[in-house]
User: Which sequence fits this backbone?
């Protein structure tokens, strides 16, 4: 008798007799994990900042020309106590209020980030291009960027959270190679 049905059916013997070639433990992890393990993954936070009326919380990273490394953004997270807008920009100028130091996520590592940082409240100046703009309600926010925004040498990235009387925070994670 000829088998005219060429499709594998769930009640047929082929469906239940699969070959498993798994021989060793397999681990699947995002690039962040490997970068952190070798000391090339960094975190930067504004901490919780009181944002004055009609102003924004600004955070900027600059990858200097000739740094020899590229920055790939992993994630952006934080919170706000009132409705706000989160905007990610290419370029821009942040008047220096503070220069927070990026932390290496491989605790105890002496590897330092090549990024120059600036943080302040106010309005972003200079020439910039808006990449992403997200309206937020009060509470926490989190964006998984998975390396999809790249800051090569000679470029900067600015982040704005506001506008208005509120407390907000910006936390940026990235790896360098």
Assistant:
């Amino acid at each position: 008798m000829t088998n005219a049905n060429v499709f594998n059916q769930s009640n047929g013997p082929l469906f239940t007799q699969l070959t498993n070639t798994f021989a060793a433990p397999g681990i699947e992890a995002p690039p962040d994990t490997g970068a952190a393990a070798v000391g090339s993954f960094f975190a930067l936070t504004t901490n919780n900042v009181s944002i004055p009326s009609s102003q924004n919380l600004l955070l900027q990273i600059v990858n200097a020309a000739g740094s020899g490394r590229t920055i790939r953004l992993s994630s952006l997270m934080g919170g706000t106590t009132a409705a706000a807008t989160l905007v990610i920009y290419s370029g821009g100028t942040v008047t220096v209020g503070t220069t927070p130091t990026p932390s290496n996520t491989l605790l105890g590592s002496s590897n330092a980030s090549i990024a120059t940082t600036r943080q302040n409240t106010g309005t972003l100046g200079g020439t910039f291009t808006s990449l992403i703009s997200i309206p937020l309600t009060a509470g926490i926010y989190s964006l998984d960027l998975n390396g999809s925004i790249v800051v090569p040498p000679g470029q900067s990235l600015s982040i704005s959270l506001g506008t208005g009387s509120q407390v907000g925070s910006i936390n940026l994670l990235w790896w360098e190679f």
User: Anything to note?
Assistant: The two ends are 63 Å apart (CA to CA).
